[in-house]
Amino acid sequence: MVSKAWEALFRSQVYFRGQPVGTIAAYDHASEEVLNYDQVFVRDFVPSALAFLMNGEPDIVKNFLLKTLQIQGHEKKIDRFKLGDGAMPASFKVLHNPIKKTDSIIADFGESAIGRVAPVDSGFWWIILLRAYTKSTGDHSLAERPECQKGMRLILSLCLSEGFDTFPTLLCADGCSMIDRRMGVYGYPIEIQVLFFMALQSARSMLKEDAEGKEFMDKIQKRLHAMSFHMRSYFWLDFQQLNDIYRYKTEEYSHTAVNKFNVIPDSIPDWVFDFMPLQGGYFVGNVSPARMDFRWFALGNCIAILSSLATPEQSMAIMDLIEARWDELVGEMPLKICYPALESHEWRIVTGCDPKNTRWSYHNGGSWPVLLWLLTAASIKTGRPQIARRAIDLAEARLLKDGWPEYYDGKSGRFIGKQARKFQTWSIAGYLVAKMMMEDPTHVGMISMEEEKHMKPVLNRSFSWC
Ligand code: GLC
């Protein structure tokens, strides 16, 4: 299965003037609708890149980082509105002209994407990948190049600028990351916050402390500090915390308020009371004024562990929850992108009646094999590789036979997704990365960060909430 996966991964490589610069999202010729699956997506390339790095083939990763950096310099406009200079593309496509024998690139910054949303995650993934490349190869010269330093600063200035914010978290539109359709992930979604946190940490380890870099370092440091407090206190949910929210008073004013965001206990959905185990916990999907999105999101929680945004205790609690709620979160195919699905009236209101995101399908509670690498990395980091082993066994029973689908549908992830592509590259690469990390756990270091001493002491909830 591993050699078949490598074959498929190599076949998905995209070349620009003879050099590999990325991997196509899906190599599914059987599907009539190509849409934009013939492009190199920044987020989709991450697991491919990690697989290549682990296999001792860093060139494609370096080419990708430099090519996307060049694309960052393209003019980006949606109608008459110009996007920020730092914005990174969601995807790009190489156009081959067989007559002139030339290659050119067209990129999408959201102006072609369904819903016209800019991918906030792309820039973060780019910085995270630059660190992974540097860690894995020991080659610091790439990150030290003036254009890479500038690229990082441009990305960071988009999110570190001063505004009207009262929270250190990043405010964004619906559909600006892996879930790229309307799914009620606007505001302060967990996925963006953890990627932001990890990108800040990665940048801190690579930015030069020269005149331009120094100013950023200071801002990064302060933001990391504020973010870890905010996320660890207000996004964290466990049995005790749930019980506290359930008993909240509302309409509190002033600094003594316990219920700072004025969350109305009646807005807690019924399912959470059954879902929450006595031992275990997780970072909820979103926190903003009078709104807590209690849904579980897999990517956000795994990256919280890898980036050490989660304290060691919280990391353990997340893994406890995954074990305790295995049937719901893993079922027959790792791993649910989010839990639970939106249904009926809620689905109509929140997704705008999206026929692709019906209950337990696609982004709405579908199971995405790509997430296997994140679960594996988190399991290894927390010293619980048996969790990853169990998940890999499930994936091995089906993935190859089913033709590496993009996602599975159903409450337990039993059915190949309604509109899932086959030979979806990140399903293939995610599997390979999971396998290689299990064989050599030191690979996890590329994508994992240790807790900073100064972030301690670990927050005590009764202190942070009272
Ligand atoms: C879908 C997914 C997105 C992915 C893209 C390419 O749009 O929602 O996360 O990057 O397909 O695979």
From TrEMBL:
It catalyses: Hydrolysis of terminal non-reducing beta-D-fructofuranoside residues in beta-D-fructofuranosides. The keyword Transferase does not apply. Its EC number is 3.2.1.26. Pfam families: Glyco_hydro_100. Signal peptide: none annotated. It is an enzyme of class 3 (hydrolase). Gene3D superfamilies: 1.50.10.10. It comes from the Eukaryota. InterPro entries: 6-hairpin_glycosidase_sf, 6hp_glycosidase-like_sf, Glyco_hydro_100. Keywords: Carbohydrate metabolism, Glycosidase, Hydrolase. Invertase that cleaves sucrose into glucose and fructose. Belongs to the glycosyl hydrolase 100 family. This is Alkaline/neutral invertase. It comes from Brassica rapa subsp. trilocularis. The lineage of its organism: Eukaryota, Viridiplantae, Streptophyta, Embryophyta, Tracheophyta. The gene is A07p045330.1_BraROA.
